[in-house]
Amino acid sequence: MDFDQYLNLPLVRGYHTYLKLERSVSPNTLQAYLEDLAKWLSYLNDAHIDPLAVKLEHFQDFLIELRDLGIGTRSQARIISGLKSFYKYLLLENKLEDDPTELLEAPKIGQHLPEVLALEEIDAMIGAIDLSQPQGHRNKAMLELLYSCGLRVSELVNLQISNVFMDEMYISVFGKGSKQRLVPMSPLACKNINIWLSDRSQIEVKKGNEDFLFLNRRGSKLSRIMVFNIIKDLAQRVGIKKNISPHTFRHSFATHLLEGGANLRAIQEMLGHESIMTTQIYTHIDMNFLRSEILQYHPMNRK
Question: Which DSSP letter does residue 185 get?
Answer without folding.
Answer: -
